[in-house]
Amino acid sequence: MEDPISANNLENSANSSQIERVNYVGFWKRIVIALIDGWLMFLFEWGAIELLNIHNLGYGLIILVNMFLYFYYGRTVGDFVMQTKLVKAGSVQKPSILSLIGRYFAKFISLIVLGVGFMFAGWTNEKKAWHDSMSGTRYIEVKSYNGIITWILNIFFW
């Protein structure tokens, strides 16, 4: 879904009369991002156990990497692969640390009601899940593309 955001809200806008188009990230793309992050955790854990005979190292390492990326850039490894990021509602600026922490814990509210809070990302115009609404964030595409072949190519050649 496209929605215009005024260039006055953009951080480094050269021309204040220009209008930016923002594509919000829907439910299924969020699922793919979660699967990428989950598979990375599995691969790191498997590699640490099988290759190094060290238990819980790989899982902890990828969690730390994802936490750093999430709180520093507002993105996880899956977000980098799928070209998405979290922004403040109404702008393209990175959310504050407090918003990101609030969003993280608000995900539990989205989850405890049979996951309906997550499904709202597929039902609202701005593709907002409950935790996005509660934290004042939006999930947008950095680079917009559609189609399963493009997604697969992006996963392998990002």
Give an overview of the whole structure.
The chain is α+β, with helices and mostly antiparallel strands. It has one domain. The chain is 54% helix and 13% strand. It contains 7 helices and 4 strands. The strands form 2 sheets. Strands 1-2 form a two-stranded antiparallel ribbon. Strands 3-4 form a two-stranded antiparallel ribbon. Residues 1-19 have low confidence and may be disordered.
A few lines on this structure:
The chain has helices spanning 27-52, 57-73, 77-82, 97-112, 116-119, 130-135, 148-157, and strands at residues 2-6, 19-23, 84-88, 137-141. It has 158 residues and is an alpha+beta fold.
N-to-C CA distance: 23 Å
Uncertain runs: 1-19
State the secondary-structure class.
alpha+beta
Shape: globular
Lateral strand order in the biggest sheet? 1-2
Major beta sheet, specifics? 2 strands, antiparallel
Q: Provide the helix percentage.
A: 40-55%
Find the count of extended strands (DSSP E, 2+ residues). 4
What oligomeric state do these chains adopt? single chain
Compressed to H and E, one letter per element, the order equals: EEHHHEHHHEH
- Strand percentage, roughly? 5-15%
Mean pLDDT: 79
Tally of individual helices = 7
Global Rg: 17 Å
Question: How many structural units, i.e. domains?
Answer: 1
